[in-house]
Amino acid sequence: MADGGAVRRVETGGAAGFWEPGSEILWRYRENGGARFHIARPVTVVRDDAELLAVWLAPGTECMRPVLADGTPVHLEPLESRYTKPRTVQRDRWFGTGVLKLARPGEPWSVWLFWEPGWRFKNWYVNLEEPLARWEGGVDSVDHFLDISVHPDRTWHWRDEDEFAQAMRDGLMDDQQAEKVRAAGRAAVEVIRAWGPPFSEGWQHWRPDPSWAVPSLPEDWDRTPAHVSS
User: Fold this and answer.
1) What is the mean pLDDT of residues 119-133?
2) Mean pLDDT of 128-137
3) Which Pfam family name is an example for this entry (predicted)?
């Protein structure tokens, strides 16, 4: 582990403020309809520049995730009460294969790549979300429920439309915000249909540097940055 088991505090440096490959940062999500962070994942920077932030979430990484107050996993709760029952957070580990996450500055979605064991490429996953806000320790966003799966043969389909509708019913998203999310989804679909970046860039053939350690989750994973910039 870097620096005795803590996430390596690599400040964004220079006028551009980009992280060097191999830097360890946090990729976090605030809770919907609240101000607290409920998801935090330590990741390793693959690339960071004016065009793209790419990070690697390694198998076995310790993360924070939301659960119901009684410890029930969120996905096991019936949809009708999933977003209204009290919640807390707990430490867990990212099991299975790792995930490569790609985000372009200012774009209201990120693209995740998944593999089967043995590095057999599975799919791209378009996660609709607030554009990432950068701070010295990582990036923050808010998830927008609606997602898109993109398959190796370039076919695609919407995901979690039921969760998106339930979030609206439960007041976590008003009509104006929901239309912004739908518009973002339509824009993402146009990129998919045109087979634009990042789908066309061959990231499915990427592999992590074997010298990278698995980052650790810091105790202050939910600290609020003093200065946040997009």
Assistant:
1) 98
2) 96
3) DUF402
Percentage with pLDDT > 70 across the chain: 91
Kindly state the tokens that stand for 169. Answer: 């019913």
What per-residue confidence (pLDDT) applies to 16? Answer: 54
For the domain with range 23-205, which CATH number is right: 2.40.380.10, 3.40.50.1820, 3.30.420.10, 2.60.40.10?
2.40.380.10
3-class state of residue 182 by DSSP = helix
Region label for 26, one of left (φ > 0), alpha (ψ between -120 and 50) or beta (otherwise): beta
Q: What's the whole-number average pLDDT of the chain? A: 91
